[in-house]
């Protein structure tokens, strides 16, 4: 049966070509996840620039930018250039969204790292959904509901991107929790409340100015004072939770990573609150709104990183650490069968191994 399968693959030119592709190293894949994450954040900023410059309909058709052309006509001037630039960033991001899952399928340990494969394909599926939703947003003349959905889908994609970025730097294996369950649940509540702040922020955006097009775009029919106050109240709640987390991770003796991201989150939220109140009392100038959108993206990433820093996963065994393990194995007593098997296991499976056994072997040298 195996011989027949091998023969079938050789007779299939696509499968044969795929088999000849080089294996992707974990380091290259980690770089791809970083680039993808940067693009996921960048597209939020460029999308905000489109709205704040009134360029949401700078290209009045989609996917073309005007009848019969994929590039902006001269009569669309600056607005067409801004919207076209945002589409170019989206296309470039799409390239990396496609390359990343293909690279995941070429990892040497792809069978053990199905999580990386699924998360990578999640990015691609999310990108396709964003492209479709972007077209719908243009065709509905920037209805605030579709604009809000466009932004919130970007935030959902950031969840996938952040998790993928972190998983690519961890080994395969089960999740363990070394902190109290209450702390983990507090982090989860913090993420949910932060998501609620983002949702209310889109309601404020859909109610206030900067619709993306001053002539055609519709607005929500809410009172701007009431929705802004509700958004501010939710921001105060997430601020309190973030401060509580900053103290809790220290009392619970959580990891240095968790403490660092708790501090980053507090600083980001305080800065966001300052920008939010300032822009409200100054009449919502476009420059401060752009800064607020960027801050919201950074706050979301920090909240996710704090949540992900609490559970433990096996360490990623890099080639340098694998080499160190080999050096340890050279001086281990050959009569110690258990230690010798640990070294052999770490070298034969260099991507992830039980870190406690490797460290024990090093400390007992």
Question: Explain this structure to me?
Answer:
This protein has about 375 residues and is mainly alpha-helical. The protein folds into three domains: about 20-170; about 175-315, no CATH class; about 320-365, no CATH class. It contains 13 helices and two strands; from the N terminus they run ααααααβααααβααα. It has helices spanning about 1-10, 15-20, 25-50, 75-105, 115-140, 145-165, 180-205, 225-250, 255-280, 285-310, 320-330, 335-350, 355-365, and strands spanning about 175, 310. A two-stranded antiparallel sheet has the order 1-2. Helix 4 runs antiparallel to helix 5 (about 115-140). The radius of gyration is 25 Å and the shape is flat.
Which properties best describe this structure?
365 residues; mainly alpha; 13 helices; 72% helix; disordered C terminus
Q: What is the 3D form? A: flat
Number of helices: 13
Unreliable runs: 328-335, 337-365
Mean pLDDT: 79
Sheet of most strands: 2 strands, antiparallel
Structural class determined from secondary elements? mainly alpha
The number of distinct structural domains comes to: 3
Strand fraction equals under 5%
Give the tally of β-strands: 2
